[in-house]
């Protein structure tokens, strides 16, 4: 009988350890699931307040990273300064107080966005709306890991596998949001599900607390290996290295997200893809047996950096697969190399909370640089190449192969830099040759950096300098055909391109032209008189035909509202006696359109124009009911759409502002998304009929482009001759296609329909 006692005790210990592992793993998993599902959920709630700009997500990321640091610091202090009982009671109390603020909501009385300082206004909005529940969630990962160590579990000395579990939850949350949650559930339903999950989490953490308090007080010390117990504290140099290694990929995350979302849509789908990959890297590097070994990622890292250099050099109208896939694949490899170095240099378990504080601080620093600082100090997207070059410094030091040859690398690189950059200050055959072959030139320098790293195990500073030269060449030899000036604001970077012969001035955002003006005739003589709208706004295009039809039907001057100013092209579509009012969110866009150095549409056609500044969902809603004969919606940023301007609720506002026989004209030309059926659907939900126009002009060389336009009105007679035109098709709403609302949108569906039907 006495021999059975140890066996029973052993079985009890095994059962207890299994229970501890299961409860702690599940609690950390659910916490991460909630932590990262709230980010796209609440950010989508905020979009209608500030234009749907990708910058909203960048600022949101800065907020989340800052609060993550605060949560980690709180967890670090609580574990160091308080006993087990106090730690459990305080944290459960914090979670309960946060629970009382749910469900999530934009706090009333916060007001409308200011005329400037959008980023700080957004940070305040996030803080008062979700600051407390997010802060409580942010502390869970390091705090629960510290509790786990104190339970005396056999895996306690190396609890970093729980960090991988946390990131699995984060990864699944982000990946499932655009694919499962967003297309199926409304925002209200998503919010209720999230609130229920928060309640479940409190119960799980309560269970973790009970298991901790039922463990021996000295369980952690008894279970700690001698070498861990005597491990010295990490040096400040190592801590600084941790901060740098976490800052670079964090900043790159925001830079890559902004780069890819500019050309598609300001929507959670494109936000969560890079963030999901970012979290996946944490999952992989903290595995006990990494699926992708660190040495392999270090080998591939310079190839990934060179890959981004080549992608940036090619520029132009990249297809969707290349834009989304290429940049994200390279980002994944770079982040894996950085985070692998963090995993390799992680400290003993007793210093785990301090390690996480350093990681979160680095993440905040990278986010602040890419999300807040860079947009204010650079007139172009400089943060992406800067962080890309800094990624080379994330490599560990190593002994160079063939040192006799590599010792001459610095003078060789200097000679290459002088030979390639010096011609930019002059004109002539050499400059023209380099300009014509810019892709090969820049790509070759990028490949040289990769070759130096892979073949020769080159010094990281040499790799950094080589990458920097390649990126400087990107700026010195722009891909645009002509002279370029950039204008940057919270809402993005706009380029004004002057073609080589000075014939056209072209407004671009991302890879999409948003307006152009002809300044010189084919014979080189200057264009005089009233400018003629071109690009998508020429008189024979869909927008021009719609304006002419309603004008002819009315037989009197029109009253027109235009959402989106662009280069000001549509100011010259007006006729004497008509009242045209423009609504624009970006003051820098207004300043550019007014500057005769760039465009003269406003100066020559509407010199007294005073656009209404602000998000149209807010400003246009204040207009009197039944005021406008025509409402034109053309508020894109590159090919990205502000989704809150293409919902049933938005169309309800447009309908309310229409005169009894007015029409809504929506420009839906898009390379990546099929939006015709979306607009027809939201019009049908408001009892409006819709006609669709889509035609290729074949005149791209003259900057006269094909357009896809949807005109919606109450009756056929309201659109005049368009109703009987063979170029316009009366289109019914799709029965199987769910109508977009402020609560629901489906970017995946729009992407699929464009891929299925082909790019227009």
Sum up the structure in keywords.
alpha/beta, eight-stranded mixed β-sheet, single chain, four-stranded antiparallel β-sheet, 12 strands, Rossmann fold, 10% strand, Growth Hormone, Chain: A, globular, disordered N terminus, 3 domains, 56% helix, 760 residues
Question: What is the topological layout?
Answer:
Layout: H1 4-46, H2 54-81, H3 84-99, H4 118-138, H5 140-150, H6 161-184, H7 187-213, H8 219-223, H9 226-229, H10 236-261, H11 268-285, H12 294-314, H13 320-344, H14 352-377, H15 383-390, H16 403-406, H17 409-421, H18 429-436, H19 438-456, H20 460-476, E1 483-489, E2 492-498, E3 504-509, E4 512-518, H21 542-554, E5 559-563, E6 579-584, H22 587-594, H23 601-605, E7 612-613, H24 616-619, E8 628-633, H25 648-657, E9 658-667, H26 676-684, E10 689-695, E11 707-713, E12 728-731, H27 747-757
Parallel strand pairs: 5-6, 5-8, 6-7, 8-9
Antiparallel strand pairs: 1-2, 2-3, 3-4, 9-11, 10-11, 10-12
Tell me the CATH architecture of the largest domain.
Up-down Bundle
Radius of gyration: 29 Å
Please name the fourth-level CATH homologous superfamily of the largest domain.
Answer: MFS general substrate transporter like domains
Measured between the Cα atoms of the first and last residue, the distance is 83 Å
SSE-based structural type: alpha/beta
Number of helices: 27
Low-pLDDT runs: 1-5
Instruction: Assign an overall shape.
Output: globular
Major sheet: order of its strands?
A: 7-6-5-8-9-11-10-12
Q: Return the CATH class of the largest domain.
A: Mainly Alpha
Would you report the number of β strands? 12
Please state roughly what percent of the residues sit in beta strands, choosing from under 5%, 5-15%, 15-25%, 25-35%, 35-45% or over 45%.
Answer: 5-15%
Helix percent reads 55-70%
Mean pLDDT: 84
Structural domains: how many: 3
């Amino acid at each position: 009988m006495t021999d059975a006692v140890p066996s029973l005790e052993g079985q009890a210990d095994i059962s207890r350890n299994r229970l501890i592992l299961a409860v702690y793993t599940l609690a950390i998993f659910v916490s991460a699931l909630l932590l990262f599902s709230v980010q796209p959920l609440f950010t989508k709630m905020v979009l209608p307040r500030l234009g749907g700009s990708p910058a909203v997500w960048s600022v949101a990321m800065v907020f989340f990273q800052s609060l993550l640091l605060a949560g980690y610091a709180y967890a670090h202090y609580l574990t160091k300064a308080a006993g087990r009982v106090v730690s459990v009671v305080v944290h459960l109390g914090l979670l309960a107080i946060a629970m009382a603020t749910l469900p999530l909501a934009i706090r009333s009385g916060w007001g409308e966005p200011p005329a400037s300082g959008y980023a700080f206004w957004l940070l305040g909005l996030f803080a008062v709306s979700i600051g407390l529940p997010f802060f409580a969630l942010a502390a869970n990962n390091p705090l629960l890991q510290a509790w786990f160590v104190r339970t005396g579990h056999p895996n306690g000395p190396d609890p970093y596998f729980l960090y991988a579990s946390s990131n699995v939850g984060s990864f699944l949350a982000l990946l499932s949001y655009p694919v499962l949650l967003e297309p199926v559930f409304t925002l209200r339903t998503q919010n209720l599900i999230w609130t229920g999950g928060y309640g479940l989490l409190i119960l799980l953490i309560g269970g973790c607390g009970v298991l901790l308090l039922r463990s021996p007080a000295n369980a952690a010390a008894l279970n700690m290996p001698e070498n861990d117990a005597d491990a010295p504290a990490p040096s400040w140099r190592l801590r600084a290295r941790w901060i740098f290694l976490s800052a670079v990929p964090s900043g790159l995350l925001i830079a890559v997200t902004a780069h890819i979302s500019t050309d598609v849509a300001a929507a959670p789908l494109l936000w969560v893809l890079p963030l999901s990959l970012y979290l996946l890297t944490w999952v992989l590097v903290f595995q006990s047996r990494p699926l992708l070994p660190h040495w392999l990622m270090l080998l591939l890292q310079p190839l990934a950096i060179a890959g981004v250099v080549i992608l940036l050099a090619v520029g132009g109208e990249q297809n969707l697969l290349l834009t989304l896939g290429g940049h994200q694949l390279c980002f994944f490899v770079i982040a894996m190399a950085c985070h692998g170095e963090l995993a390799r240099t992680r400290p003993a378990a007793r210093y785990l909370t301090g390690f996480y504080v350093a990681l979160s601080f680095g993440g905040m620093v990278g986010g602040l640089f890419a999300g807040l600082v860079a947009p204010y100090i650079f007139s172009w997207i400089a943060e992406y190449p800067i962080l890309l070059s800094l990624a080379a410094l994330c490599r560990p030091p190593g002994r160079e192969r063939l040192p006799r040859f590599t010792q001459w690398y610095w003078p060789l690189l200097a000679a290459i830099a002088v030979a390639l950059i010096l011609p930019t200050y002059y004109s002539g055959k050499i400059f023209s040759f380099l300009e014509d072959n810019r892709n090969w030139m820049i790509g070759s320098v990028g490949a040289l950096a990769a070759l130096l790293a892979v073949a020769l195990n080159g010094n990281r500073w040499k790799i950094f300098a080589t990458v920097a030269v390649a990126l400087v060449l990107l700026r010195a030899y722009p891909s645009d055909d002509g002279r370029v000036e950039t204008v940057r604001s919270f809402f993005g970077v706009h380029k004004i391109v002057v073609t080589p012969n000075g014939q056209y001035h072209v407004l671009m955002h991302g890879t999409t032209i948003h307006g152009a003006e002809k300044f010189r005739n084919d014979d080189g003589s200057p264009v005089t008189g009233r400018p003629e709208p071109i690009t998508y706004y020429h008189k024979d295009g869909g927008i021009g035909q719609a304006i002419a039809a309603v004008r002819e039907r009315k037989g009197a001057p029109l009253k027109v509202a235009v959402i989106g100013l662009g280069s000001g092209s549509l100011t010259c579509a007006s006729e004497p006696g008509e009242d045209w009012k423009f609504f624009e969110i970006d003051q820098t866009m207004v300043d550019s359109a007014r500057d005769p150095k760039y465009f003269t549409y406003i100066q020559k056609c509407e010199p007294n124009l005073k656009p209404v500044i602000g998000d149209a969902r807010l400003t246009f809603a204040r207009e009197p009911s039944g005021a406008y004969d025509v409402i034109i919606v053309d508020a894109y940023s590159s090919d990205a759409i502000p989704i809150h301007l293409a919902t049933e609720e938005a169309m309800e506002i447009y309908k309310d502002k229409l005169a009894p026989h007015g029409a809504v004209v929506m420009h839906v030309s898009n390379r990546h998304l099929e939006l015709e059926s979306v607009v027809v659907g939201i019009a049908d939900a408001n009892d409006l009929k819709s006609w669709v126009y889509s035609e290729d002009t074949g005149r791209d060389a003259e900057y006269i482009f094909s357009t896809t336009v949807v005109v919606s009105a109450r009756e056929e007679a309201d659109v005049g001759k368009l109703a009987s035109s063979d170029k316009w098709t009366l289109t019914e709403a799709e029965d199987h296609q769910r109508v977009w609302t402020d609560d629901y949108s489906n970017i995946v569906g729009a992407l699929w329909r464009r891929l299925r039907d082909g790019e227009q």
